Amino acid sequence: LMWTPVKTGDKIEFKLNIGEAVEKTNIGLTLSHNPDGGTISFIINGKPVNFDGNETVKLFEPFQTILANHFSESIGLKKGINEVIIESRDADPGKKIGIDFIWVKEQ
Predict the structure, then answer these.
(1) How far, rounded to the nearest angstrom, does the alpha carbon of residue 72 sit from its chain's CA centroid?
(2) What is the pLDDT of residues 49-91, one digit of tens each?
(3) Which CA distances in Å does 19 have to 6, 7, 73?
(4) Which of 52, 55, 43, 50 is nearest to 16 (CA)?
(5) In 1-107, at which residue ranges do the beta strands (DSSP E only) sit?
(6) Is the N or the C terminus of the chain less surrounded, counting Cβ atoms within 10 Å?
């Protein structure tokens, strides 16, 4: 999915259906880094979550397009629907957010 937010604060939402509650897990995302890549942050079940130890992930790659994996801090997920929100943190419109896939990595 290639998403182009219009303004700072635009959000895209995904639902993760989890069969059993998990106390400690990591969310993994494979994201596109490219010359038009933006900056994003994450909210999971209403709470901000760091990825790769940072509040934001910068997807700018100056010379090429690559896919890279990013992992959340340790979090708990409830049984049933869990909400993952990706929020644009860019002031410039037209930055691209490429999302390849999302997975849950149990600890």
Answers:
(1) 9
(2) 999 999 999 999 999 999 999 999 999 999 999 999 999 998 8
(3) 35, 35, 21
(4) 43
(5) 2-3, 11-18, 22-33, 39-44, 47-49, 57-58, 66-71, 75-77, 80-88, 97-106
(6) C
